[in-house]
# Entry
Amino acid sequence: MERYHRTLKERVKLVVHETPSVLEKAVAAFVDYYNYHRYHEGIGNVTPADAYYGLRQAILKRRKGVRQRTLQRRRNYNQADRERERGQGVR
# Structure
């Protein structure tokens, strides 16, 4: 909570808010961003909302699958590239 409050203060202090209602809107926008859009390293690079609603494990599992598929595509591409080079006599 202390880190959250520090981050909120840092963000809100960047702008001079003319009225309390403008400040309230800025705080509400920050809370929405912080809870629903900002990934937090301490909880596995998911949003607090994802963690709260029990979506963290599914998200991490999906990311792991994407990572594995990406690495396999890179391996296949690099292997095909090496075979092409060998066929052309390039070293």
The radius of gyration is 23 Å. The CA atoms of residues 85 and 91 lie 7 Å apart. Residues 56-88 form the longest helix (33 residues).
